[in-house]
Amino acid sequence: MRIEQLSKYADISTGRSFRGAIKKAANKGFKVIQIGDIVFDKGEATLDFDKLTETEINTSRSIECLNNGDLIMVAKGREKHLVLLNNVPDKLICTQHFLVVKPKAEFSTVTSLFLKSYLETDFSKDWIEANSGGNYQSTIGKGILEKLPLPDLTDESGSDFIEYVLNVNAELEKYHQLIEARKNQVAGLIIEMVKQ
C-alpha cells in the first residue's frame, strides 16, 4: 500500500496571530477561540461559543472565518486536542495556537469526522509527539502536520479503510452513550435510595 501525507487530503492553516491579550470589543466583533476556551465533556474536547471573547479586527485584508466541519487542533502543549466544529456562529476565528484542518473537496470520502478519528489514533498521536518541536513546550507546526503519513485513500482499499474507521468510531460513540446512560441510572438510584 502506498503511503501519502495529510497535505494530500486536507488543507492545513494556522489561526490568526494576535500580539498580547485579545481586547474585548464593545460592539459585536469576531469571536475568538483561545486555548483556555477548550473544555472537556465526557473525555471529549469541546467549547462553548457563547463564552468566547469578542474583539474587533481592523485590517484591509480579508479574514477567513471558521465554518461547520472545520477541525481545530491545539498546536501547543503536551496534548494536541481536536475539536470538530458544528453549529458555528458567524465571524468565528481562532488564535495562532491552533491549526485548522479542512478536508479537500476533491476527496469526498475524506471527511472531517474521518480526519478527526485518524488524528486521534495512537499512531497519529505518537507521530505528532515524536515530530513536535519546542524547548520548553511541545509545539506542532503546519509544515510538520502536513507530513503526517496516511495510507493511500484514493483506491478501493482506501475507501474500505475510511468506512472501517468511521464504523468503529460510530460503534465507540454508541458504547460511550450507553456507559453515560448507565452512570446516570446509578446516580439516580443512589439519590432515590438516600432520600428514603
Task: Give a description of the structure.
The chain is an alpha+beta fold. It contains five helices and eleven strands; from the N terminus they run βαβββββββββαααβα. It has a four-stranded antiparallel sheet. A three-stranded mixed sheet has the order 6-3-9, with no helix packed on it. Strand 4 (39-41) and strand 5 (44-46) form a beta hairpin. Helix 2 packs across helix 5 (156-195). The mean pLDDT is 89.
Q: Ranges with pLDDT <50 over ≥5 residues? A: none
Number of strands: 11
From the helix content, strand content and strand pairing, which structural class follows? alpha+beta
User: Strand fraction band?
Assistant: 15-25%
- SSE pattern: EHEEEEEEEEEHHHEH
Describe the main β-sheet briefly.
4 strands, antiparallel
Summed over residues and divided by their number, the pLDDT gives a mean of 89
State the separation between the terminal residues, measured CA to CA.
63 Å
What topology, given as strand order, has the largest sheet? 2-10-7-8
**Helix content range:** 25-40%
What gyration radius follows from the Cα positions, in whole Å? Answer: 19 Å
Overall body shape: globular
* SS field, number of helical segments: 5
